Write the C-alpha cells for this entry.
Amino acid sequence: MERTFIAIKPDGVQRGLIGEIIRRFETKGFTLVGLKLLNVSKELAEAHYSVHKERPFFPGLVEFITSGPVVAMVWEGDGVIAGARKLIGATNPLNAEPGTIRGDLGANIGRNIIHGSDAPETAQYEIGLWFTEAELVNWTPTLMPWVHE
Ligand code: DAT
Ligand code: MG
C-alpha cells in the first residue's frame, strides 16, 4: 500500500488548522499511520528541502519551517501520493483551486500551510527522514470495506 509524507507547516499549526487538515485526509478515506508534533532542527529542514538548496528562496524556507511547531504525518492509501497533492492544491495558494487546502485556507506562497511528497521516491526519502520504522503503525481501519472496493 502506498504511503506519503505530509507536514502541517508552522503557519497551519499557529492558525489552529491541524484538525481541519487532518479531517480532510480522514474523510477522504486515507489512513493515518504516523503522527507527531515537533520543532524542526535546521539539519532536518535543510535535508527535507535539499532539492531546493540552490533556489533563492531556500534560506527563507528553512527559516520558516523551523520557526514553530510542525505536525509531521504519514498517510497510507491507494494512490495517496497524487491524491494528497490533489487535496493540497497548487503551490501558490492564490492559484490553488477552491476546495483544496491551500485554495480554501491560504493566500501567500510563503505561507502555504502544508507540505506533501510529490512522487514515490520523494515520499520514501521524506518518510525515512522524518520517522523511524517503530513510529509507523501498521493497521487497517475496520471501515475500509466501505471506503475501498
Ligand atoms: P510544493 O510545496 O507545492 O511541493 P515546491 O516543492 O516547488 O512546492 O516548493 C517547496 C516550497 O517552497 C513551497 O511549498 C513554497 C516554497 N516556494 C516554492 N516556489 C517558491 C517561489 N517561487 N517563491 C517563494 N517560495 C517558493
Ligand atoms: Mg515539493
Observations:
- The mean pLDDT is 98.
- The CA atoms of residues 29 and 145 lie 11 Å apart.
- The longest helix spans residues 18-28.
